[in-house]
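Good morning C.,

I know you're traveling, so I'll keep this short. The sequence:
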Amino acid sequence: MVTYILLAINVIIFILIYIGKLDADDFMVSYHWVFNRKQYYRLITSAFTHKDVTHIAFNMLSLVNVGTFVEGLFGPVKMSIIYFVSMILGKIFALLINHNNRKDYQLSLGASGAICGLLGTYFLVVLYIYGISGLQELIRPLTSLIIMSILPGIDGTTHFTCMAVGMAISYFLIVLR
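The tokens, ready to paste straight into the viewer:
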């Protein structure tokens, strides 16, 4: 249920931006806006902002595929925790990495970071259940993640930092429960 609520929020915000009721520039994130201007809300709003139909379509398809799996496994509350903590902490780590690489004004937007947090959960669950033999199950999603992270104009740093946060949270939920 949470997965579909997140999908609806993303689509509604996209439509409001598309029809000119909201301005995407007010929601995107960069190191400069968060740390220099102290606009912390952008850590969340950027994850609900998409630049075009293809962007939101791919992200929402990924959200439904991975989100329903994680929500079915952990329930709506833990899935929400994984999603939002991955979104915020993963983005903070990515912004700090960008700052170290002198990319304080690099813009980022979209739900893919938070979705990668859920994907990190999927990876950890498969490895936890199947061990090393589960690697075969991960080849396709990992290949997709790598391809979508190295394309020009894609914030691959956020994808991998959010995935790492999602894996860490899942570790605590699965192994240390």
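Safe travels,
E.
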